[in-house]
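Ticket opened by: R.M.
Priority: normal
Category: complex prediction / small molecule

The reporter submitted a protein together with copper (II) ion and asked that the result be attached to this ticket for the collaborator who will pick it up next week. Submitted input follows.
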Amino acid sequence: MNKILIIIAIALIGIFTIIYVYSNNKNVSGEIIQDLEPQGSDEIKEFTMTARKWKFEPNEIIVNKGDKVRLTVTSIDMAHGIAISDYGINEYLSPGQTVDIEFTADKKGRFPFVCSVSCGIGHRDMRGILIVN
Ligand SMILES: [Cu+2]
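Result attached by the on-call engineer:
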């Protein structure tokens, strides 16, 4: 009778050990099992944008967390700027010149971008949004 109880106890300890190990996201050899979240790809997500009085086109950039992003931005009329403050980006856009902005989208969320060079009456409307899913 005692032997049966001991065998049951050992079996229960074994089962709870296995549940504990797996609930900590580890496999038996102790390696961490990767998160199921998308990790982004190695290819660069490219967006060609224009800036002009008083808008960015496109004004919505959608990427996934972990993506490498390149914004190729050209002002087609006068001096503008593009600032994505949450990503520490602020570039001056000389008229007719193209600026490449590269960054890794390592933060999820919705990040506004704005024109950072005073460009006239519609300056405050010159904005857009970076969405990192
Ligand atoms: Cu402006």
